Amino acid sequence: MTGELILFLILALTAIASAAGMLLSRHAVYAALYLVLNFATVAVFYLILGSPFIALAQVSVYGGAIMVLFLFVIMLLGAEQIPAEIKWKNILPAVILGLALVGQTLYLVFQKIAFSNLPLENSVAEANPTHLAKSLFSTYLLPFEITSILLLVAMVGAIVLTKQEKKGGRG
Amino acid sequence: MVPLNYYLALSAILFSMGALGILIRRNSLIIFMSVELMLNAANLSFVIFARQWAANSASVFNGQIFVFFVMTVAAAEVAVGLALIVVIFRSHQSIDIDQLNNLKG
Prior knowledge:
The complex is a heterodimer of chains A (171) and B (105). Chain A starts with a helix and ends in a 9-residue tail after the last helix. Helix content of chain A is 72%, strand content 0%. With 171 residues, chain A is mainly α. The longest helix of chain A is centred in the middle third of the chain and has 26 residues, at 52-77. Chain B has helices at residues 4-24, 28-52, 62-92.
């Protein structure tokens, strides 16, 4: 066993355990914190796979912005008081379907896909953020700009949706 | 080097756990978090394949740029979705999705 394989196994176990903790935790706050751990683990995987920019975007966007938004909403609603609401009635078919999905995908990954090894060439040095930015601002400039419009629309939409209407006002 | 299959298997397991979370939980916030987990698993496989075909393609970063766009769309989706959950909680005093059956005839 090489060191990289050991690192992979430890990180994979952390990712799966934190996902399971999210699924089974009684309180929404704990679920959110487990999900933060899961996102951090996936960010380390991105680093290993040679994409440092995506790894840092994962930490700051997912682990930072999105999960802070989740935690704010949980505390705003007082949803941390809501007890566990796992629906035990349909847990058996759900687990069977989940295992079927895992089995099918693992069969596909281990039996049907021909390649089995990542190439060692094309090292991390070539995948640095400078090259990524060049590609992002030349080939993908239009989607990038459309993304900014999408974020603006989402922001305006969230503000309009949650705006408290005043009584007697024009709303 | 860890084989590609292991990473893909991890991505598949995380995706399935997200799907399982959607099926067994009733709290709409946790269902939303499960959706994020599934998006993340898909992103992981994007990065894996970007690494796999980095050597023999003209544009090395297609997969990584796709992940970037998926993250942006996920952020927009979370903002709007959490706003909807807040509004639903105001009108129903609950975010249990089993109680949101007003459209049921």
